Backbone:
């Protein structure tokens, strides 16, 4: 098992073993020609265990609803005085501490390469982004932010997160996700003023 | 053929007949249980004709690259003095004149309902939106707009287009798409100032 080291370092559980097995197989033989059974076997698990964790083959690289929950909770936990974009910055910081941790950087770079090679995975990623935007919009409106303002802020937050994820997984200087995301949000705000 | 009237009104061609047949079948019996062969038969065409027009069943409701081209051309044709968001407003106006014409409003409302009921179609729609953003960003940077500014403007343009499309296909007062899109863009700009 070439990924045994990673599994050990990540405190293995079935879900993570399936993710790593899938990533290896997609990279080795392509996404299209990999079956759920092969992923389960490579992870030393059964097909039914796979389907207890993921509804289909695509979802294995997308981690269900966890990211949407982290963002919504991060926005809810921001200081009451925070502007919508500051609350989003707070949430992206939490994502860096709880999800995009330094040990995952190499995994994320490999994951991006597999997604970039597969239109079906790009579709799932695009749909996931809509879910993140909906979660952020919902959490902002619960703070009393008007609907349309929340929606615009959430779109900017999703764009910042996407660019920051690319920068973070490409980075070799050990910069942390939250820090990169904060810089990216500031850059987007500066760019905004030039749009109109 | 229940849609014969519509077909006639729209100057029928194979592509449009396939789109209307697909929409009818998706609404009647569901997207999942409709086959490409059934769509072709309902349109009075063959399966191979279907695949000359669309790569797969999903694509039949998304019109290929036409919308991306309209947006890119609309931005390119905007006055040299236009700001990025003004250029996008110009492009959305062109979309209203050349694609989202008043005769298509009812079709668009039905199309939205079918997409809302099918996760696979939502995925394709989300991916299509990324294509529109890329096309707008590319056309803006060709006007000399910096990359990040272009990307932010394109995201806002895509959001305005999406909200305007919902409003337009829901509207019963005959308001035109370009006009609704212009108002939506202005609202988004106002909302933006409240995000930071």
Residues:
């Amino acid at each position: 098992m070439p990924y045994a080291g990673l599994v050990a370092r990540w405190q293995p559980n079935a879900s993570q073993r399936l993710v790593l097995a899938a990533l290896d197989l997609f990279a080795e033989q392509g996404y299209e020609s990999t079956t759920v059974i092969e992923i389960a076997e490579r992870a030393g698990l059964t097909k039914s265990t796979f389907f207890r964790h993921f509804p289909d083959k695509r979802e294995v690289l997308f981690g269900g609803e966890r990211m949407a929950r982290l963002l919504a909770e991060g926005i809810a936990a921001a200081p009451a005085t925070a502007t919508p974009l500051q609350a989003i910055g707070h949430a992206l910081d939490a994502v860096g501490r709880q999800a995009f941790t330094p040990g995952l950087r190499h995994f994320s770079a490999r994951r991006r390469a597999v997604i970039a090679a597969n239109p079906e995975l790009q579709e799932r990623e695009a749909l996931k982004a809509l879910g993140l935007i909906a979660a952020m919009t919902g959490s902002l409106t619960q703070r009393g932010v008007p609907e349309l303002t929340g929606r615009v802020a959430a779109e900017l937050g999703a764009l910042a997160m996407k660019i920051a994820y690319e920068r973070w997984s490409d980075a070799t200087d050990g910069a942390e996700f939250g820090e990169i995301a904060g810089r990216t949000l500031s850059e987007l705000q500066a760019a905004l003023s030039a749009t109109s």
About this structure: The first helix of chain B runs from residue 4 to 9. Chain B is about 70% helix and 0% strand. The two ends of chain B are 54 Å apart (CA to CA).
